[in-house]
Amino acid sequence: MLLLTPDISFLGYVGGDRIGAVIYNLFHHRGLAVLIYLAGIYFRSETTSLIGVILFAHSSMDRIFGYGLKYFDGFKFTHLGNVGKQS
Fold first, then answer.
1. What's the pLDDT tens digit per position in 4-27?
2. d(CA 2, CA 78)
3. Is 82 domain-assigned?
4. How far apart are CA 1 and CA 56, in angstroms?
5. CA-to-CA dists, residue 56 to 15, 18, 47, 70, angstroms
6. Which residues, 6+ apart, have CB-to-CB distance to 5 below 8 Å?
7. Do the domain assignments include residue 40?
8. Higher confidence at residue 33 or residue 4?
9. Is residue 2 part of a domain?
């Protein structure tokens, strides 16, 4: 169930497309996930390491399903192409 926790980043879109994209991308950036994991190793914090693993797994799962990092134009515009129905 914790694998879906990073999706709370969708709440950033309440503040508009730009803020939503920044918050979403922060939660779904695999480099940040690796840094959090390594910080957990360095500080000997299993919880922090687990958070890094969950963030990495979640963002990787999103990439598999075609959800990429968001552009400021709106939620459906990603670095992997547009998400959802094409109008």
1. 777 888 899 999 999 999 999 999
2. 24
3. no
4. 15
5. 25, 23, 14, 17
6. 54, 58
7. yes
8. 33
9. no
Farthest CA pair distance, the chain:
50
Residue 87 token pair: 């109008």
How many domains are there within the chain? Answer: 1
Structural domain of 46: 13-76
Report pLDDT for 85: 66
User: Of 53, 63, 51, whose CA–CA distance to 25 is shortest?
Assistant: 63
- Bridge partner residues of 78 (DSSP): 70, 81
Tokens 């459906």 -> residue: 76
- Give me the amino acid identity at 46: E
Q: Does residue 6 lie in a domain region? A: no
The dihedral region occupied by 65, where left means phi > 0, alpha psi between -120 and 50, and beta the remainder, is alpha
User: Which run of H or E residues covers position 61?
Assistant: helix 46-64
